[in-house]
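User: My instructor asked us to take a sequence, write out its structure as tokens, and then describe one feature of it. I'm not sure where to start. Here is the sequence I was given:
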Amino acid sequence: MARDFSRTQRIADQVQKELAQLIQREIKDPRLGMVTISYVKVAKDLGYADVYVTVLPLGGKDHDEAIAESLKVLNQAAGFLRGQLARLVKLRVMPQLRFHFDASVDRGRRLNDLIFQARRSDAELLADDAPEGDQPNPDTKGE
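Assistant: Let's start with the prediction itself. The structure tokens for your sequence are:
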């Protein structure tokens, strides 16, 4: 019988939950933007955990600059965060933390914009190609 969740997935979920709270409460670096942990992937041997984050820039910073600074702060605080996680999550081995930017949210937003633009241009083309008699008359109002 196949299992629904593997042990590493359960550990990843717990690490994600605890890490989000730790970053919010313990990291007071002003360079850190508003960070959301979107996904954690733990290696099978628990040697490392890849933590994927999204960043909302604060203080009028450029988006790319805010991402770079936030990742730098998080990677520098990885040892501290790992120690705090080891205290909260009872494991024999606590994985090394590696922080990465999760580009899937930006990619999804960009694809959504492209789809919206394509639909709008298709609607404009259909409106331009329609014969004069097929276009609705705005004066009739559905009569």
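For the description part of your assignment, you could build on this observation: Residues 7-103 form a domain with the GMP Synthetase; Chain A, domain 3 fold (CATH 3.30.300.20). Try explaining in your own words what that tells you about the chain.
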